[in-house]
Structures are given as structure tokens and as C-alpha cells.
Recover the amino acids of this structure.
């Protein structure tokens, strides 16, 4: 049963990967979002 | 015990069953039970199958009697009447297992001499098919058939290790050694086709290939091989009409089929295939990546002062299809920071993509020596950007460059179609989650399966108890 689920899951994942590769999209940005890059100072001790 | 698979019967429809050879049935005769007085205690003893059974046990005093001896010689006596052994399948009960009807005629408790680990064996009898054993070990049942075939025993590679294994002629599937040692008869009831004696010891070896077990039992006179097959408790209950009366066990057992193992065996080739596919696809996409610089810009700034409304002049991304755009900023940050914020704008459609860069680089020397952190570079990748004309607007500011108020310069480089490996890492990670979970479950089952084995592959030979 798990193997059938995996086959479907992996197929979708491969299709998603190919689509992302062909269109220049990222499959991870929707998952992690974009990070804030404001300066934080050494060790992140303060904000300017 | 002696091997006796019995004579096969001629089925009612005259056709062979299960590939068994069929010989004409013996002349029909009604088995006659024989009664005699126990030579140990005088109680009445009945032998239900006097032609087939060589010994039986007095139900009163538990003395084992040789029924082929005219004087009913006592083979062994059991010192105590005991309730210690709970007989789950009553003697004389009948049930249909593996498509054939069997009667329980004997019961024995056996144990490993070294560890005192014990299990129960029920002797089943069918006048046409002979004898079988149904073993019960802490809630797990095996249907055991004696075989006349002598399996080939040799060392072989199983997985990443070499171990002793037995092979049947029918297949090249190895039965891996599981246990070896002396086993002893502790208690018997009923009747048997050999002269059973309490405390009789045989040298036994078990080999497993779940759900089957290949066992050899050796004494001074013979070696008997048998094949056991795991039989679910529910099947035994249904056969002997004992619904929910047999003890349940949720623990793993030597021959218990593992769903996790089946899943793992099915999943790992798919996993391998997926990883190879993803890698090949990644190599292809990386090879196809344009990776061309479409704009370079150099700007000036004065440290610790904001600057606004800077525009990188229009540049063209030629490819029609969408792709990524990587923008990299270099600034001479020295124990300070430089920040840019703005947007990439499509000149034709007005679509904009927000950008932010922070170049921070700090270094120094402390009691642990020199240290540094951050970088004078900062990059940002925008995904799914279609071809067209673009420009970049941004503002910027910086920190105090050690009171250096001289004008500094920074660089912005825009690259179209950089090879993107993060997709491959993420896809490989997600493609591996289910297989790794399946492996963990399989490993848990197999570790539990081998926990009672002297040949446990999950315990290193150097470890001690």
C-alpha cells in the first residue's frame, strides 16, 4: 500500500521538478518563503 | 521426532490437489481405538490410532507408554501433575487448516536447553495425509510439515554479510540461520507416532525466510527436516472454532510476515529510480541553463549616508520562455554593512519583483584568535521571469565605514538562467522521506524479529551481554 502511495507521490514530485526546471521556477520558495535581509550587525546583535 | 508425511488420499473428484502425487487409497477400514490399563497408575488409557501411534500419554498420571509393547512399557513418567502448561487446542478437536482436516492428537512442550526458552507443539493427524505439527510460540503459530528433501546448507552472502543458509531445491531463496542448539521435551500429552520420552534432547537448527522456517532436528540416529509456515492466529481460531480464545501477540516473530519489509522491498527500487531520474534531469536542466550576464552596473555611495532613486538602465532578456534571474551585489563592506532595496521592473508589462541585498562583513581578533563573519557579496534569485526589457530601481544605505567618508563604489550584476541546484536538493529530500520512513519501520521490525536469535545481524560480534 505504501509503495503505491509512493509511486504516485514520486511521480507528482518528478513532474513538479521537471516543470520547475523547464520554467525556471523554484519548488522551495513556496515552502520556505523569502528571507528578510536587513542588516543585523556582527552576530546579529543589533539592528541598524 | 521421526519424519512421516503420511500417504496422500485420492480426492473425491479424482483429481490431484496442490500438486501432490496421488496413489490409490488404502482399503477403507474403520480405525479402532484400543483401551488398556496404565501400567503406572492403573487408569484407563485409550489409543485412538493404534496402528499409527507408537506411544501415548496417560491422562491420569502423565506417564508416557509404549503402545507397541505388549506389556505397555513405561517410556517416561512426569513427576508432577501440573497446570503449568495451558493446552490451547484440546486433544481430539478437529479443524481445517491449509484446506485439509486435522485432528489434534498430541501436545508437547519443548524448550531450548541453554536458554530455557519454551514453546508448544500440537501434533495433528489425518489418516490420509499423515502428521503435521502446529507450533505455538507466545501467540505465534507455525504449520509445520516434515520434508524428505535434504536442503543444501552453505555459507552465502545475505545483504552485506556472509552467513550460513539452507536452500531448498525449489528456489534459490536462502533460509538464513536463526537459532541452533539443543531442544528438550518437557511435557507431553496425547499420542505420538514415535516413542516420545520426557527430557529427550535433539540438536536443532532453525533457518528462516519469512514467512517460512526450515528446521532440522538431529539425534544419534537421524536428521529430520521440516518446513514451517507462519499461520495467523485468526486462521487457527477459525480452523478450530476458537474465535478470540487464543492469546494475541503484537510482537514480531521469526517467521511473522512484515508489512514494513514488503513495503521497503517494493519502495527502494522506486526510490533509486527517482533519485537517478532527478539527478539526470538536473544535469540536463543545468546544461540547458543560459547563464548569461545581461547587465552590469557600478554605482557610488558615501558611507553612512542614504541614497535614493537609483535606476539601473534598461536591459533585455532575450529568451521568450521564463527562467530565473540572479542579481548579485558587491560592496566594500569592512566591519560595516551595505544595504540595497528595490525592485526589478518589466518595462513592457510593469510587473515588478522586489529585491533586497545586505552585504555585511565583520572581522577582528580576540582571545581565540582572528575571526570573521558575513560577506561583501549578496545575491538574490528571482524565479519564473519571462523574457523582455527590464530595469531596476533601488535605494541604499550603509553603516559607518570606520569613519571613512570617502566615496565608495558597489557593483550589481544581473545574470539570466543560472543553474539551480536547490530544486534538486529539495526534490531529492522530499523523494527520500517516504523511503526513509519505510526503512525505519522495516529496520524496527527486523531488529525485533532477530532479537531472540543467536545469529542476530543487528548485534556486533564485539558487543557483550
Amino acid at each position: 500500500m505504501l509503495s503505491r502511495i509512493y509511486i504516485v507521490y514520486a511521480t507528482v514530485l518528478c513532474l513538479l521538478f521537471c516543470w520547475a526546471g523547464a520554467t525556471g521556477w523554484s519548488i522551495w520558495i513556496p515552502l520556505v518563503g523569502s528571507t528578510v535581509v536587513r542588516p543585523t550587525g556582527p552576530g546579529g546583535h543589533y539592528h541598524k | 521426532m521421526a519424519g512421516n508425511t503420511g500417504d496422500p488420499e485420492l480426492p473425491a473428484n479424482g483429481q490431484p490437489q496442490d500438486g501432490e502425487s496421488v496413489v490409490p487409497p488404502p482399503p477403507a477400514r474403520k480405525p479402532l481405538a484400543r483401551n488398556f490399563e496404565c501400567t503406572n497408575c492403573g487408569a484407563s488409557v485409550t489409543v485412538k490410532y493404534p496402528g499409527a501411534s507408537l506411544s501415548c500419554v496417560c491422562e491420569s498420571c502423565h506417564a508416557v507408554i509404549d503402545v507397541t509393547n505388549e506389556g505397555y512399557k513405561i517410556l517416561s513418567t512426569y513427576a508432577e501433575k501440573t497446570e503449568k502448561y495451558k493446552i490451547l487446542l484440546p486433544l481430539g478437536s478437529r479443524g481445517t487448516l491449509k484446506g485439509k482436516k486435522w485432528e489434534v492428537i498430541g501436545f508437547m512442550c519443548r524448550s531450548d536447553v541453554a536458554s530455557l526458552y519454551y514453546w508448544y507443539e500440537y501434533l495433528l493427524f489425518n489418516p490420509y495425509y499423515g502428521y503435521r505439527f502446529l507450533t505455538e510460540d507466545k501467540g505465534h503459530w507455525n504449520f509445520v510439515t516434515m520434508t524428505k528433501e535434504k536442503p543444501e546448507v552453505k555459507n552465502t552472502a545475505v545483504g552485506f554479510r556472509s552467513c550460513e543458509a539452507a536452500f531448498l531445491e525449489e528456489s534459490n531463496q536462502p533460509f538464513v540461520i536463526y537459532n541452533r542448539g539443543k531442544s528438550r521435551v518437557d511435557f507431553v500429552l496425547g499420542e505420538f507416532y514415535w516413542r516420545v520420552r520426557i527430557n529427550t534432547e535433539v540438536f536443532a537448527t532453525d533457518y528462516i525466510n519469512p514467512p517460512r522456517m526450515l528446521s532440522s532436528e538431529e539425534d544419534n540416529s537421524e536428521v529430520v527436516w521440516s518446513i514451517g509456515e507462519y499461520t495467523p492466529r485468526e486462521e487457527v481460531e477459525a480452523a478450530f472454532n476458537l474465535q478470540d480464545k487464543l492469546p494475541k501477540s503484537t510482537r514480531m516473530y521469526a517467521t511473522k510476515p512484515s508489512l514494513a519489509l514488503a513495503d521497503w522491498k517494493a519502495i527502494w527500487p522506486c526510490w533509486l529510480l527517482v533519485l537517478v531520474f532527478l539527478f539526470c534531469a538536473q544535469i540536463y536542466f543545468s546544461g540547458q541553463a543560459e547563464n548569461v550576464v545581461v547587465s552590469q552596473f557600478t554605482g557610488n555611495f558615501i558611507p553612512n549616508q542614504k541614497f535614493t532613486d537609483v535606476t539601473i538602465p534598461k536591459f533585455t532578456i532575450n529568451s521568450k520562455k521564463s527562467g530565473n534571474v540572479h542579481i548579485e551585489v558587491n560592496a566594500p563592506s569592512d566591519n560595516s554593512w551595505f544595504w540595497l532595496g528595490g525592485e526589478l521592473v518589466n518595462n513592457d508589462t510593469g510587473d515588478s519583483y522586489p529585491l533586497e541585498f545586505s552585504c555585511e562583513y565583520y572581522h577582528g581578533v580576540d582571545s581565540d584568535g582572528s575571526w570573521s563573519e558575513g560577506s561583501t557579496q549578496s545575491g538574490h534569485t528571482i524565479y519564473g521571469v519571462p523574457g523582455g526589457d527590464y530595469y531596476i530601481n533601488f535605494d541604499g544605505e550603509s553603516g559607518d565605514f570606520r569613519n571613512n567618508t570617502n566615496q565608495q563604489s558597489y557593483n550589481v550584476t544581473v545574470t539570466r538562467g543560472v543553474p539551480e541546484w536547490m530544486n534538486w536538493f529539495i526534490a531529492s529530500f522530499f523523494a527520500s522521506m517516504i523511503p526513509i520512513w519505510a526503512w525505519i519501520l522495516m529496520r524496527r521490525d527486523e531488529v525485533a524479529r532477530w532479537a531472540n536469535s543467536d545469529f542476530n545481524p543487528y548485534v556486533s560480534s564485539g558487543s557483550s551481554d
In short: Residues 148 and 382 of chain B are 72 Å apart (CA to CA). The interface with chain A takes residues 263, 266-267, 270-271, 274, 277-278, 281-282, 284-285, 321-324, 337, 339, 356-358, 360, 362, 373-374, 378, 380-381, 383-385, 399, 417, 420, 422-424, 426-427, 430-431, 434-435, 438 of chain B (CB under 8 Å). Confidence is low (pLDDT under 50) at residues 1-23 of chain B.
